[in-house]
Amino acid sequence: xxxxxxxxxxxxxxxxxxxxxxxxxxxxxxxxxxxxxxxxxxxxxxxxxxxxxxxxxxxxxxxxxxxxxxxxxxxxxxxxxxxxxxxxxxxxxxxxxxxxxxxxxxxxxxxxxxxxxxxxxxxxxxxxxxxxxxxxxxxxxxxxxxxxxxxxxxxxxxxxxxxxxxxxxxxxxxxxxxxxxxxxxxxxxxxxxxxxxxxxxxxxxxxxxxxxxxxxxxxxxxxxxxxxxxxxxxxxxxxxxxxxxxxxxxxxxxxxxxxxxxxxxxxxxxxxxxx
Length: 275
Ligand SMILES: Cc1ncc(C[n+]2csc(CCOP(=O)(O)OP(=O)(O)O)c2C)c(N)n1
Ligand SMILES: [Mg+2]
What we know:
The chain has one domain (about 10-270): Rossmann fold, CATH 3.40.50.970. By secondary structure, the protein is of the alpha/beta class. A five-stranded parallel sheet has the order 1-2-3-5-4, with helices on both faces. Helix content is about 40%, strand content about 10%. Magnesium ion (MG) binds next to loops.
């Protein structure tokens, strides 16, 4: 696909297929995190099939845009995206979470296309800032995208990073929040309420945009808006549904980190349109 010509229906088709591949990957492993992988499918597709400058055949191309998956437990959506983009053979998805596999349960730098090992929440945005600051000093021109979880941003380090990015005017940093309203043990609003979230990021000096995180047109226009912002970093609040696409997983904390059993897997695949 030519990355700049957008065919929304084609992207939607990819999203349906990716959801099935994510579930199959977790099902075959017998463990993993479906909820926060399914919520981020459209975001990853919009980045890797539309927005980012990257070369799957040369993952260390110096001018590539960087993507940091800060919520590293949602590795299945990253691995499925990278495999489909040609960073490594799709066949390898079968080795997810198996002994000796580079497809470790949490996003692992040994996988082609991965910039940073993550899983200990709260660190990704700081690293994104460091990469962007280094590039600014060296006058290198690329963007750094960072996907965060809404439970994750309860970690204080995110707010230190928020100050750092605006202090250094890191306008090549685009943080995207997977605002699925659910964390590991329940609703974010009950565990530690974050509202008014957009106001908080604005007050920390970020250009802040709120969108429907399953609507490709909205994601694409927010990512394009980011390109026009000068002198400040951009924060995109992508409102999503945890477990999106599978009725019995949607909005359910119990599907944060659990593999479906055979009957659940088959039901989910059926709901997603079958094999
Ligand atoms: C520092 C740290 N504390 C706790 C955990 C355990 N943990 C893994 S995922 C998660 C919840 C994350 O929720 P959220 O950021 O909302 O992720 P999503 O809903 O997108 O899956 C927690 C507490 C961790 N990985 N790292
Ligand atoms: Mg969440």
